[in-house]
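Just wondering, does anyone understand these C-alpha cells?
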Amino acid sequence: MRSALSLLLATVVAGCGSYSKNAETDKVPLSQAPATPGAAEAAPPAGALAGEVLERLDAPPYTYLQVKTPQGDVWAAVPQTSIAKGANVRVYNPMLMTKFESKALKRTFDEVYFGTLTPDGADAAVNGAGAAPADGAMEAGANPHAGMPSSTSEPVKVGKVEKAAGPGAYTIAETFAQKDALVGKAISIRGTVVKYNPQVMGKNWIHLQDGSGDAAKATNDITVTTMDETAKGQTITVRGTVKTSKDFGAGYKYAVILEEAKIVKP
C-alpha cells in the first residue's frame, strides 16, 4: 500500500464518520441489506475491476454499478458516487459476494463485488478501462475496506481493562494463546474499541484492546464482527465465536477473529 487509507473489513483489519444506521434498512451492509445465509465470500480478482459503466442503481449511502470488463459484465457495490453511465471506472480491491440480497433494491445479485472507486473513496473515473492506478493507489492484496466510512484517526489510549465476568471469559492475550483450543467456541471478551468500521460486507467491524497481549507480536488487538453498533473509545463486552486462520481474500487474513458477536449489555 503506497498511501495510508482509512477499514466495509482493517486493514479490517487490518485496518478499520460513520453511518450509525443503514439508510435503507436501519441495519447494516454495503448493499444496504444483510447478506442472506447463503452469501459466500470469495477471493477477488487481482488488482481491480475496470471498464465502462453500463448501469447505475443508487441505494444511499451506496451505489451499484454494472461494469463492462474484459471478463464480462459484472456488478460492483461502492460508496455512493456521482459517476455517470458510460464513464470508465476502476473498482479497487473487489471482494466477491454471491447470492447477495439487497432489500432496498428488492433484488438478489448472483454475484456482486464490493470495493471502492479510488483508494481514498472519492468519486473518480479513469481515462479508460486499462488506465493505471493513480499515485497512491493500493497494491493488489491491500486493505479491501479502504475508502469505507471509518472512525477518526486519533488513537485510543487503552489501559488495563477489567476482564469480562462469568464462564467463557478471556482476555485478548489468553484468546491468542489458547486459540487452537478455543476455535469454534463462544467466548466473552471485554475491551476498549480502538477502531470501528460500520456497514462493511454486511457487518460492523470492531478492533478491541484490553491492555493484555504484545503489540510486537500482534496479540494485543482482536478483530470482532457483529451486527450490533458501538463507537470508537467505548469499553464493551462482546460474546462471539472464535475462528482461526480466517482468509477473506485480498491479503486479508486473521490468525484469530471473533465472529457473529453480540455486545453484552451491562
Q: What stands out?
A: Residues 1-46, 119-152 have pLDDT under 50 and may be disordered.
